[in-house]
Amino acid sequence: MLVLTRKLGEAIQIGNQIELTILAIQGDQIKLGINAPKDIEIHRKEVYLTIQQSNNEAASINKDLITQMKNKQFRP
């Protein structure tokens, strides 16, 4: 993990397209401004992990359904 120190108003550049700017510092919280192309998804980590878990569960259900259909156990 790369650790960088930034002050209010300073930025970090990630590649050519993503810029993180420190907008505010209030106690133990900071506000980040993220400038990135619209096709890049940006989520808080806990939201991202929830999305991934939901996607994995949905994929698992589909695999089970396909297996049942192949085994002719599926009856609508």
Automatic annotation (TrEMBL):
Keyword annotations for this protein?
A: Bacterial flagellum biogenesis, Cytoplasm, Repressor, RNA-binding, Translation regulation
Q: Which residues form a coiled coil?
A: none
Lineage: superkingdom: Bacteria
Identify the InterPro entries for this entry.
CsrA, CsrA_sf
Q: Does this entry carry the keyword Cytoplasm?
A: yes
**Gene3D superfamilies, per database record:** Translational regulator CsrA
Localization of this protein = Cytoplasm
Assembly, in brief, is: Homodimer; the beta-strands of each monomer intercalate to form a hydrophobic core, while the alpha-helices form wings that extend away from the core.
Report the sequence similarity comment from the record.
Belongs to the CsrA/RsmA family.
What HAMAP family has UniProt attached to this entry?
A: CsrA
Q: What does this protein do?
A: A translational regulator that binds mRNA to regulate translation initiation and/or mRNA stability. Usually binds in the 5'-UTR at or near the Shine-Dalgarno sequence preventing ribosome-binding, thus repressing translation. Its main target seems to be the major flagellin gene, while its function is anatagonized by FliW.
Q: Which NCBIfam families match?
A: csrA (TIGR00202), PRK01712.1 (NF002469)
Q: Supply the name of the protein.
A: Translational regulator CsrA
